[in-house]
Amino acid sequence: MSRFEQLIQDLGPRKFSLKGKLWMALLIVISVAGIAAYVDQLIRGQEVTNMRDYVLWGFYISNFVFFVATSFVAAIVVAVLRLTNNEWRRPFVRLAEIVAVACIIMAGITIMIDMARPDRILNLFVHARLQSPITWDVIIIPTFMAVSILLLYFPMLPDLAILRDHYRDKHPRLSKIYGIFALKWQWTKQQLRLQQKSIQIVVLLIIPLGLILESIDAYLFSTTYRVGWDSSNFAPYFISGAMVSGLGTLVALVYVVRKNKKLENYITDYHFEKIGRLLVLALMIYIYFNINEYLVPLFTSKEAESEHLNTLLVGDYAVPFWLVTIGGLVLPALLLLFKRLRKPRPMFYISLLVVLGSYWKRYLIVTPTLLHPYLPIQGVPESWRHYFPSLHEWAITGATLAMALLIITLLVRYVPVISIDRLAEEEGLEEAKHKEAAA
Amino acid sequence: MEDKSKETRRKFLDTGLKVGLATALGGAALTQFKEGFASEGDTGAKMQLMTTDGTLIEVDASQVEENLASHMERDPREGFENTKFVMVVDLAKCENALACQRSCNKHHYITGENAWLKVYNMQDNETSSPYWMPTMCQHCDKPACVTVCPVDATFKRKDGLVLIDNERCIGCRFCMAACPYSTRVFNWSEPQQQFEMNMEMVDHLHSPEYAGMPSKMGTVDKCDFCPHQTAKGELPHCVTACPNGVFYFGNKYEDTVTNGNETVRLSKLLEKNSGYRLFEDLGTEPSVYYLPPKDRITPFEDGLENYNEFESVEKPGEPVENADNPEAS
Predict the structure, then answer these.
(1) Distance of alpha carbon B253 from alpha carbon B196, whole angstroms
(2) Which of A82, A405, A437, B36 has its CA 20 to 30 A from that of A97?
(3) CB contact under 8 A, A47 and B150
(4) Please, what sign has the CA dihedral across residues B138, B141, B143, B146?
(5) What is the total count of domains within chain B?
């Protein structure tokens, strides 16, 4: 087998193993259960959730914030790696773009799940008011979605063409499908020039769009009169948090894909060591913003803010708060400082801690604030003074996570996770068609 | 050849536009013509009316109807002319009788578990004395809720009211998150409202000017300052229900407020009693003023027997607490 064939076999589409099939079945079951729960929510209204007039946003919104944050990974990887031309980026770029696409799609769906009247969704366009941060979201989410899909798609064209050619005889139907998406790619000079230009445009777009997306997400909270939300620190706080959840998710995914596709030769310890450093940096920056958000205000906080901070630091939410802060933030940062731990397997476990921490961090940003309105909570049932997601909320939220994983799994199944075209070119294989076209 | 085809197309467009315009104009003229006829149809019946300066005049009955019609068609997003609604809540008179809340719940068909008008058991610090504080929508002049609404479902009118169009609300609850007064209430499930007329009629009467008539699942509700009462020349339900005259309601431009028993100058009332507004420092500019609980008419403790920390809307069928309370309407 030639080296080129080897590349296609290693990186190209591969049929699901039994484990893969079971994994797909699990995701589909969770998704279907969630859809059933959502239909029930549509019929009976959001009384099926445990949200009420005080905790008026809950699990759905914190889940949404997590998806938005994680989709930022496309911007980081592009910003830090592509533009600075770091050669170790190769195994991460496409997977980062896949995560971003899956997460931004699910973010758009999740925010609609929280809307109590999805039947009136067109009002967002017909009666749009530009001063509302939700309208900004309506603009930025589809824009970011479109650009991140293009960011995944444009660099993939040569790979799709390679697969089209590869399957021409063996699997004509598959070849045809790849052919449709390959847009008649033939490595002509003109095509290459056009592709380079297009990639350059989306690469430059994704960075400001990512920053805007995360900022708007923060503005949803910081434009209200809520203690714990109306913080001018919030947009950078969200951006740094997005770096953490995005990179954490990426590391975990890269490890799983590497293990299942046996890509140890392509994604090496060297790559993990490099991205480990980037993750430490992200964690440190996020810790810095957490200090600004929760510790420094202790000195001058007004009565209402003190009460809120107390709830987080020593009160009702102290246990989850410190679990998330230490377990999901400080501990991973400390561990990753050791070179010995910046190896694939330990990094996988650390990144799981990071992702879990990032997920519940958002819950702690949304809920405790709502339990501290300016006027006391009176005249409503006792249960309204606490919040924990209902079974419906768990099922629906679980389904959104399952669907994100489903999108990722399917893309990983059918799309080369590392660019075959690029590798072939770098290794100077005779099948690489870049050179002859460029010549 | 190409030029020619372009020409024909332009010609076609031109003619088309002209024909369209002519049709529209003709239609408009016809309608006008018809209406002209209708108003000229003199019924012969005359009506006596009093002008603003007190003289009696006689006019044709058909004209009166037209005026009435234009009055009825007041744009619910525009509001009353020359009016700025204000309310004054005199905390010194509040004894937590809750007649206001019951009346509000009843007339707005509130069926949820969170009333729009709430009487808070307040104590600012350990040393200062506790007091009862009724709150309703503050109808802020800089309403945080209106700023964040993405679809203009909640809006501010020129008469100062902040209302909700629950036919437009998408149920995102951003306004509830934004309101610092926790005054907004959500219909988490299908409201179990019962009307004396049938639902179809209620839907027909539906207007942002009468909140709760009917409430809709998945939308936000709140105190509307009862413009449906004002339109009839009556006071909001809470004002008339209160046995102690806690609530004063009126027009700021006229500097007059009334609690049903006495009508007073707003400025004098605020000056004499050191009136204030809630959370002035937030800059929301509320339309509700509070008079401090000075020289209370009854001890604070008297209100405790009515106080239920966990309920503000009595459920139908539930034994009504304090049913023999003379203040209960």
Answers:
(1) 37
(2) A437
(3) no
(4) positive
(5) 1
CB A331 within 8 A of CB A353: yes
Cα separation of B92 and B296, whole Å? 4
What local confidence, expressed as pLDDT, does residue B64 receive?
Answer: 58
3-state secondary structure labels for all residues of A48-100: HCCCCCCCCCCHHHHHHHHHHHHHCHHHHHHHHHHCCCCHHHHHHHHHHHHHH
pLDDT at A34: 98
Closest partner CB to B309 (pick from A127, A138, A378): A378
For residue A374, which residues of chain B lie inside 8 Å, CB to CB? Answer: 180-182, 279
Q: What is the mean pLDDT of residues B189-201?
A: 83
Structural domain of A123: 12-433
Phi, psi (deg, nearest 5) at residue A361: -55, -40
Q: Which of A52, A117, A378 sits opposite B170 (nearest CB)?
A: A117
Please report whether residue B293 resides in a domain.
Answer: yes
* B249, part of any domain: yes
The verdict on residue A5 lying in a domain is no
The residue among A378, A382, A387, A392 with the most chain B CBs within 10 A of its CB, best to mutate, is A378
SS3 content of chain A, % helix, strand, coil (to 5): 75, 0, 25
Please give the residue range of the domain that contains residue B219.
85-306
Q: How confident is the model at residue B325 (pLDDT cuts 50, 70, 90)?
A: very low
Partners of residue A133 in chain B, C-beta under 8 Å: 148, 174
Taking CA–CA distances from A125, the nearest residue in chain B reads B151
Question: Given an 8 Å threshold on Cβ–Cβ distance, is A120 in contact with B122?
Answer: no
Query: Chain A contacts of B113, Cβ < 8 Å?
Result: 52, 380-381, 384
Q: What is the pLDDT of residue B187?
A: 97
When CB atoms are compared, the residue of A53, A115, A225 closest to B171 is: A115
Q: Taking CB atoms and an 8 Å limit, are B150 and A124 in contact across chains?
A: yes
CA distance A327 to A323: 5
CA-nearest residue to B144 within chain A is A224
Q: Is residue A6 part of a domain?
A: no
Confidence at B317, pLDDT banded by 50, 70, 90? low
pLDDT at B37: 45
- Chain A residue with Cα closest to B217: A45
Asked if residue A62 is part of any domain, the answer here is yes
Q: Which two tokens stand for residue A133?
A: 């941060």
The minimum CA-CA distance between B48 and chain A, rounded to whole Å, is 45
> What mean pLDDT comes out for the span B121-145?
96
Q: Please state the ipTM of this predicted complex.
A: 0.93
| Helix, strand or coil, per DSSP, at residue B186 | strand
Contact between A119 and A43 under an 8 Å Cβ cutoff? The reply is no
Write out chain A residues lying below 8 Å of B290, CB-based. Answer: none
| B130 domain residue, yes or no | yes
Could you report the per-residue pLDDT of A76-120, keeping only the tens digit for each? 888 777 788 888 888 999 999 999 999 999 999 999 999 999 999
Nearest-CA distance from B144 to chain A in Å? 7
How many contacts (CB atoms, under 8 Å) link A and B? 148
pLDDT in tens, A402-427: 999 999 999 999 999 999 999 998 88
| Residue in the block written with tokens 């957490």 | A290
- Residue A380: give its domain's CATH number: 1.20.1630.10
Report the residue count for chain B: 329
Which of A38, A44, A46 is the best mutation test for B, with the most CBs of B within 10 A? A46
* Lowest model confidence (mean pLDDT) among A356-360, B62-66, B117-121, B264-268: B62-66
Name the nearest CA neighbour of A109 among A143, A67, A168.
A67
A2, part of any domain: no
Single out the residue of A23, A22, A20, A41 nearest to residue A395, CA to CA: A41
| CATH of residue B188 | 3.30.70.20
Instruction: Tell me how many domains chain A contains.
Output: 1
* Confidence (pLDDT) at B36: 44
